[in-house]
Every structure is written in structure tokens, then in C-alpha cells.
Design a protein that fits this description.
It is built from 27 helices and 31 strands. Among the domains are: 4-190, tricorn interacting facor f3 domain (Immunoglobulin-like); 218-305, Zincin-like; 307-439, Neutral Protease Domain 2 (Neutral Protease, domain 2, Orthogonal Bundle); 720-849, Peptidase M1, alanyl aminopeptidase, C-terminal domain (Zincin-like fold, Alpha Horseshoe), CATH 1.25.50. Helix 3 crosses helix 5. 48% of the residues are buried. The mean pLDDT is 98. Bound molecules: (3S)-3,7-diaminoheptanoic acid (B3K) and zinc ion (ZN).
Length: 849
Amino acid sequence: VKAKYLKDYKKPAYAIESVDLLFELFEEETFVTNTMQIKKTDASVNDLTLDAVNLELLELSLNDLKLQESRYIIEEEKLTVLNVPDAFEIKIKNKIYPQDNTELEGLYKSGDIFCTQNEPEGFRSITPFLDRPDIMSLFTTTILADKKKYPVLLSNGNKIKCHEDFKERHGVTWHDPHPKPSYLFALVAGNLGSISDEFTTIQGNKVALNIYCDLGNEQKCHHAMHSLKASMKWDEEKYGRAYDLDIYNIVAVDSFNMGAMENKGLNIFNSAYVLADTDTATDANFMGIESVIAHEYFHNWTGNRITCRDWFQLTLKEGLTVFRDQCFSADMNSAQVQRIEDVKALRERQFVEDASPTRHPIQPESYISMNNFYTATVYEKGAEVIRMVYTLLGEKNYRQAMDLYFETFDGQAVTTDDFLWAMHECGDFDLELFKRWYKQSGTPRLHVKESFENGTYSILLTQKIPDDVDGKKQKPCYYPLKMGLLDRDGSEILAKTLIISKESETFVFENLKEKPVLSINRDFSVPIIVEYGEAQFAFLMKYDTNSFTQYEATQNFALRTISEIIESSAINDDFVDAYGHLLDLDVDLSYKALLLELPSVSAVMQLQKEIDFDAIYDAQDKLLLHIAQKYKEKLLDIYKQNHLPASASLEAKYIAKRAIKNRALKILSILKNDEVAELAQKQYEESLTMTDRIVALDVLENLHVSYAEVALQDFYNRYKDETLVMNKYFAILASSSRYDVLERVEKLQRDKVYDEKVPNLVRSLVGSFARNHKHFHAKDGSGYKFLADKIIEIDKINPQIASGLCGAFKVCDKMNKHNQDLIKKELSRVISTQGLSKNSFEIIDKILK
Ligand code: B3K
Ligand code: ZN
């Protein structure tokens, strides 16, 4: 297994100016004919080496002359044509088997639909090519297929021709006028339903919008369509970027390795991010669709028009596009809730990754399988880095800098340095120091020491930078730190953005009557961990004017309280009182629902040197029980006030009512009494939305065995034909706290709804179990053995999904010796499996090192 390194980047020696593709789709095989116009860009080279995986070559000709076997070499993953002229046409015909492709990369079948996934390196398994993002070409694509089975034939760009002159078969030719890298190529063929709409761009161009799905699901596409139009408008308003083709197609398929893909003019989506109605999708699902639709649309400018020079630059398009979709969602919904949700997700996934043996900078230096680097770090931490640029520049300069970036690099494949150059042209920050965010891994910490004397308040801020994954020292970071000072009455004295650039620095605030209260890292302006000396959490929970740090104070106080319970089993009454105050707050109810949420197991785990899941669960339950007992009446009131009148409306007001009511129900469920069980059961039966139904089901599953049995059976019967809903069913059962979870998960794998070839189902059953710390980390090693067996099995089907599951073992070196030994035993067994993919190998190898 060989690694690739950023430092080895070389410019390509050829340009592929145009590509003409012919796909002849049949049930047993597909023929691909690829005609390319190629020019040398480096006169010193003689041979042309194309990327080609599992190549079954049928014809090869150069300038219309068939090539003798002595003129080319086929090696593993390469086709080399010897002694090529300076400019030439090459024509390759080969055969592939999409119906047998379970890796879901390249051309494959999802049910009866032909579709593609080419980022980062899937195109090479379709046809030989210079399959790298800095090769940008004009694509023309003809698809020929059975007329009845595949009435819809799609590719990138505009439809330029229909071929109707044969009996059972037909064809369509598409041409994309924008040069693009091969990873953005897409093809779809199927018998699909669709909905259509139209958008007129700011320049007055009419764009036809189509969303395709399985027949019968058309009515579930409207929210996606609405989100698409909102995204198009937002990008015009906020970034001055309009869409650039006459048609925008989205296709929803059930078998997809990730969320969605931004192929030029033909996005392909995991159906979970397109299909929704209130009977089958939760409020969170609706929001998820809005944000993924926006994300893929925004890629048209940040990713497609300006793409990455090489895959080490992935965060250039992903960090930036995540930042853009986060801002979009903040504008569409509640900005304060969005910020907290984004930070929560970052800490749950990225902070854990950043503290593990697979940690890497947002711009990694090497990889074995690029597919392993579509990570929370490259995406979410990458987005935080862009957010810091935005904060450093301010809205106006940031917009100018983005304009400069688009003007300068449109149509090119560039680097993160190019991006930062444009930002720096329009802003004033230390470019070289800031670049460390791209090259260093691990979550920086900031220690705060306060002092007050004679009216002068000072804070000594000391950076603590973790070593990199190989134990090498790393340097202090440069960032904008938003902070504020409050006086003892809770009114704000000042709000400021400090620039942090040194390892240690003191900031002084003069002429103060009394020692102020510090509110630090407001809006989470920098992705770090703050280490407080004596913090005024209870005060900030009451008075902080910044909604993020108010939330943060609550989380920190709760974390401190849980840690104390773990140590001494005593519950801090100050926290419980402060929590009681939150219950009375008159604030936006979806924000309040977040304030009332106690820290997750993962959040507590991140504080422990040696993770003790049992102790965490016990302490959490103890605190929650105390709160539920003490505030039972208030919580019941909150529940009742927001439960009725019932509504399935998706207006923010009703989403908020559902959020706060369901938070109250979940907290109350720790009481494990009949009153709460009956509330949940009634909610299950009367629910008008999936949001209410699924929360009730989850509560029942963990609260009342016999009520749960009835509800689960009802749910199964009602939704067994809706795979997307069945994902939720599997997830609830696999995340359950009941003692026999593993047994039930094993049984569910044999359920006729379950299919190991469909990534969503594997993620919701096996993936959810792997996140069920209580049972996954069972002392007898049964959870580890189960997952290891699954990884071996699934690796043969779909290496990307298997290597994703390996991530559950990342916490290995933080576990006690007993569990560490059990994990290592299982991972050693997996890594020595014959034919293990490089995807799984790379992750396990890092964990075992
Ligand atoms: N760019 C794709 C991700 C491709 C993942 C390949 N394993 C989706 C996105 O980020 O929009
Ligand atoms: Zn993306």
C-alpha cells in the first residue's frame, strides 16, 4: 500500500481539450467509447499514462489508426500509450459491469437506476483518463439504452440531441459548455418521476429546474425544490453569483455512499437529502435537505467553476462551501440556533477526530485512500477556518475578497494558498501565521487567567498547542477572539475582537469600578477549547448578551457538574438552580430547547484522560433524574403548553414548539413512571408529524417495554415499505439502552427490509450500534467482535462504508487497558484479512500504531 504526498505534486504533461463519450447501456454490461483530443503541455515527455481501473480494453486507436499491442502497456490501474505526438486524438472502447458494482463508485446501479459517483477518483473505473482535478475538459456525452426501462437519460450540461431512430432503444446527447474535471462528470439512466420548476437569474436567464426520483415519490420533492430556488437567490444576493447553464437537474437515488454530489448541472443525491413530507420526515430532516441542497448548489461556484488543483486542496472547496451553506441556513432559519447546532456537530465529530490517531490538518500532507479524507476536519474545521477569515476581514472586505477570488481564478484548478492570497489582498491579517491552520492538526487550547487591581482588569491568555500525530511540536495559532465584559448587574461593558497571535499575551482593560465578568469566544469565533480559571458560569447563564456564550456557559457548568458527580457523586445545587432559571427564560423556544439539553456522552468523554463510559452514563442519569424530579411540574407545564393544539406546520414557530416539548418529554422520561410513559404513548398515537412520532417511539423504547413493543410493531407495519423511515427504526433499536441490544441488532440484520448493500441501512443499524457506547464497549468484547466481523464482511462489498465503520475504534488509546486489548485483538484480526481494502487498512493501521 503506497501513500501519496502533497510535496510530490507535478503539473500535468498533457491537456485533454475535449472528451466525447458514448455509453451503450445493457443489462449485463456497458460499452464505453471515449474519444479525446489531447495536447502535450510538456514537450519533453513521450508516453501518455492514463488512469484506468479494471480495464477491459476492446479497441484503442490514435488518430484513427488502430494501435498494435506493442504500442501500449496495461498495468494495474494504468494504461500507457507509448510515443505519442504533440497533438492527437485517442479513441478507447472498453467494457464495464455497473450492475455488479457494489462499491458505488464510478458507474453503478442503485435499484433499477444507472448512476455515477466520480469524486475523487471514480472516473478511472469508467474509462481511461487523466483522472485528476487539474485536467479540465469539454464533455459531450451520448447515452444509448432501452427505451422502456430507461426513458430518462441524463448527463451534464444541455441536451443537444435525441436519437429515436431505433426500435426498443433510444439515445440522448448532452454537451457541457463549461470545461470541468472528470470528477464532476455524471450520468443517470432510469424510469424516473420528476417535478419541474423554473428560476430566472439576476441576468434574466431562465433556468429549467428538475428533480428526479423513483416513480411515486414526486410529491416528496417539493421541499428540495423550494430549497434549491432559495439557494439560487441567496448566492446572487450574498455573493453576486448566478447560475450558468439553462438547466439544473437533481436525481435522488437510494444507494449512495454519502449525502450528495455536485456534478455540473446534474447533482446526484442520496434520497435521504431530497425526499420529505411531514408523515415521513422529521423537522431535522427538512433542515438537512435545505442545507445539503444549498451546499451542492453553492459548489457550482466554489468547487466547479473554481476547482481544486489536487485532492490535498479539498478544503478549498469543502470548507468554503460548508461555511456558505451554514450562513445560508442561518439566514433561512434562526441564526443563533444554527450556530449552536454547527458547533455541536463540530465538537461531536471533529474534536473527537482531532484527538484521535487519525487526526490530520484541514490540508493533509499524505493519504493512502483519498476517500478517507472527506472528514469532519476537512469539512467542518475547514468551515471554521473560513469563518475566521470572514471575522478577520469583516463582511464588506470579505465580499470584496471573494469577488477578487472569483475574478482571478474562474475556470481554474487552484490551491488554498491562492484563496488566501485573495483574502489577504482585501484584508489585514498575518498570512503566514494564519496558514498554520492549514498545516497543523489537533484542537488548540487557550488558558485564561484573570486578575483585577485598582480598576485594571487583565487577562493572561496562554495557548496550548497539541503535538501532531507523530509527536512533533506544533506552533501557536493566529485568530480573532470575540469577547465581552459584563458588570455585576449583568449589563455589558464592552464587546471586542482580540487578535491572538502569540503563545502568551496579556490584555488589559482599564478604569473599571469592579472586577467584570468575562464572556469569551463569543459566537465560537475560533475552534478551540477554552480552559477557564474561575469561571462565572451561573452568572453568564443568566446575563450573557451573546446567545452562543450563554449556551456555552450552560454546557460548561453542566460538564463541570457531571465531572464532580463522577468524582464524588455529589450534585452541585448551584447548577441545578441555574438550570431552573433557564426553564423560566422567555426566549425563542428552539434556542431554549438547546439550552436545556445536557452535554452528550461524547462531550463528557472528551474531558476524561481514560474514558469510563459506565461512570459517564451513571453521572448523566443521576443529574438528569435530579433535575426531572425537582422540576417535574415545570417540565410537564412546558410539555403541555406546547403540545396542543396539534399542528404539522413547518413554520418556525411550530418547529420550535415541537423542539421544546420533546426536550421536556425526554428529560421527564428519566423518571420512568407511568405518567410519562402514558404521555409518550399518547403522543405516539396522536402524532401528526414524524418528529413527534419518532421521539415518542424512542422514549418508549427506553422507558416501557410493553408500550414499546406495541408502538414498534405499529411503526414497522406502517412504514416497512419506506426505506428512509425504516432507517430511523433501525437507528432507534440499535441506539437503545436495553440490555439485549446486540441480540436485537443481529436479528434485525435478517429482517427483509435490511440490505447490507444499501449504505443508509448499514449506517443506521451497524453505525448506530457502534455509537451506542454503553453496548459497543461492553466488557466482554461482544460489541467489538460484532463490529469487526461486520467490517470484514462489508469491506468486500463497499470499502468506503467499511472504513467509515472503522472510525468507531478511534477512541482505543483512551480506553482502559482491558478494552484496549480487546479492541487491538479485533483490529489485528481485521487488518490481517486477505484482500482488505486500502480504505479500511489506512484507518486501522493508524489506530493500531
Ligand atoms: N463533494 C462530494 C463528496 C464526495 C465524497 C467522495 N467520497 C459531496 C460534497 O461535499 O458536496
Ligand atoms: Zn461539498
